[in-house]
Amino acid sequence: MQKEFYGQSFVEVKEEPPYTMKLTYYLLSDNVSEKYCTLKVYGAEIDKEDIFTDGTHRRECKIIRDLFFKRDEAENFIIKLSENLVTPMGLKDVLNEYIEEKISMLSYETHG
User: Fold this and answer.
1) pLDDT tens-digit profile of 7-22?
2) Any bridge partners for residue 77, and if so which?
3) How far apart are CA 56 and CA 50, in angstroms?
4) Which of 36, 53, 60, 95 lies in the 20 to 30 Å Cα band around 89?
5) Contacts by residues 30-37 (CB-CB < 8 Å, ≥ 24 positions apart)
6) Residue 24 and residue 7: Cα distance in Å, rounded?
7) pTM of the entire structure?
8) Torsions phi, psi of 19, nearest 5?
9) E strands, the chain, where?
10) Is 87 exposed, middle or buried (0-12, 13-18, 19+ CB in 10 A)?
11) Mean pLDDT over the full length of the chain
12) From CA 100, how far away is CA 104, in angstroms rounded?
């Protein structure tokens, strides 16, 4: 699996205690081989690091592998994640929305 840096954001959180949230986004790629072909598949990773004023850190990470067969679709998904400052905890919700969006775009034929 290859991991490609795609962007980073810092958010100042005004809770008690205050901290800085660092969100880092990666495009993942891998090759899946079968008998006569090799496919390139893509996924996404979100790393979140909370940096507190006392110097302590808290980390969280979520990965979705093998979700896309097209690089441009994977890139658009990661852009959506980074523009909306999606955290690892929110990744599942954004993924569900994405899948629902794709399903709604399908056309069905009925025969009768």
Assistant:
1) 999 999 998 899 999 9
2) none
3) 8
4) 53
5) 30/1, 30/2, 30/65, 30/66, 32/66
6) 6
7) 0.87
8) -155, 165
9) 2-13, 19-33, 38-52, 57-68
10) middle
11) 92
12) 6
